[in-house]
Amino acid sequence: MIRSEFTNDSELYHGNRVPFVPRYGAGSSVNGVIDTRYGALMPRLAVNLVGPHYFDGDNQLRQGTYATLDSSLGWQATERMNISVYVDNLFDRRYRTYGYMNGSSAVAQVNMGRTVGINTRIDFF
Fold first, then answer.
1. pLDDT in tens, 3-58
2. Which of 51, 64, 87, 97 could join 24 in a cystine, given CB atoms 3.0 to 4.6 angstroms apart?
3. Whole-angstrom Cα distance, residue 95 to residue 97?
């Protein structure tokens, strides 16, 4: 649970939610290590929950609650080399990351969606 409020004396936003502050948020992950003769495999699964929030002080532009699921699989090939593949936002959940009014029209920026990538780490020293 996240608590935020406008604290100035202005009545303009009295009782409104502070923009960009979700009502609640939570995250959890499960990580593992599987030893193999070729190095350790490290699976990970994470869920992220973001509660409803507004993009403006008038509380007109609202993003509802959403959740994303992220996963990765790492391989510790040697003591100095790690390679992992990941998928963030596995189910391609779409949500707004920003919004504003342009005259009488609401405009919003949407998240990137599912992201797939590879991370490589090599320690030389």
1. 777 776 667 788 888 999 999 999 999 999 999 999 999 999 999 999 999 999 88
2. 51
3. 6
The predicted model scores a pTM of 0.82
Mode of pairing for the β-strands spanning 25-31 and 39-50? antiparallel
Find how far residue 55's CA is from the centre of its chain.
17
Distances, alpha carbon 22 to alpha carbons 31, 62, 107, 108, 122, in Å: 27, 10, 19, 17, 38
User: C-alpha angle 35/40/46, rounded to 5°?
Assistant: 105
DSSP string, 45-95: EEEEEE--EESSTTS-SEE--EEEEEEEEEEEEETTEEEEEEEESTT----
Q: Return the DSSP state at 97.
A: E
Output the CA angle 19-25-31, nearest 5 degrees: 145
> Which of these, 67, 57, 70, 60, lies nearest to 21 by C-alpha position?
57
| Backbone torsion region of residue 35, taken as left when φ is above 0, otherwise alpha when ψ lies between -120 and 50, otherwise beta | beta
